[in-house]
Write a structure and sequence with these properties.
InterPro entries: TVP23-like. Keywords: Membrane, Transmembrane, Transmembrane helix. The chain has 132 residues and is mainly alpha-helical. It has one domain. The protein has a two-stranded antiparallel sheet with strand order 1-2. The protein is elongated and about 75 Å long. The relative contact order is 0.15.
Length: 132
């Protein structure tokens, strides 16, 4: 169940609802490279392709599930239910990996958007200066 949830959130829900995805790529030298992507925006003034409601549902679900798994971990630890501790730790790790990956995607997309807006307005300014 944990693996299916991890796969579904990482590969389907994140890409469809908020336009973010991440994965690990190993090159020919055996080095691991993490890739964090966001949906490409054609221009900074383009209409939003991601619904605000879907985005809020996605982030709320991602954060709430992470908090819930941490609560389960403390519950299993303090109630001495060792047989469930392995399952709960795996849930915390997988949900934490998804949360970390999507936060990295979101931060990177904001940096890309900022650079695109700066580039766009810089080009507009240069165009006005050169035509004047």
């Amino acid at each position: 169940k944990n693996a299916c949830d991890f796969y579904c959130v990482r590969n389907v829900t994140g890409r469809l609802m908020v336009g973010l995805r991440w994965w690990n790529h190993i090159d020919e030298d055996g080095k691991s490279h993490w890739v964090f992507e966001s949906r490409k925006v054609k221009s900074p003034l383009e209409n939003k392709t991601v619904s605000e409601a879907e985005s809020r549902i996605f982030w709320l679900g991602l954060i709430a599930c992470s908090v819930l798994w941490v609560i389960f971990a403390f519950s299993a630890l303090f109630s001495f239910r060792v047989k469930w501790l392995a399952v709960v730790i795996m849930g915390v790790v997988l949900q934490g990996a998804n949360l970390y990956g999507y936060i990295r995607c979101k931060v990177r997309s904001r940096k890309n958007l900022t650079s695109m807006v700066t580039s766009y307005f810089g080009k507009q300014f240069l165009r006005q200066v050169t035509t004047s």
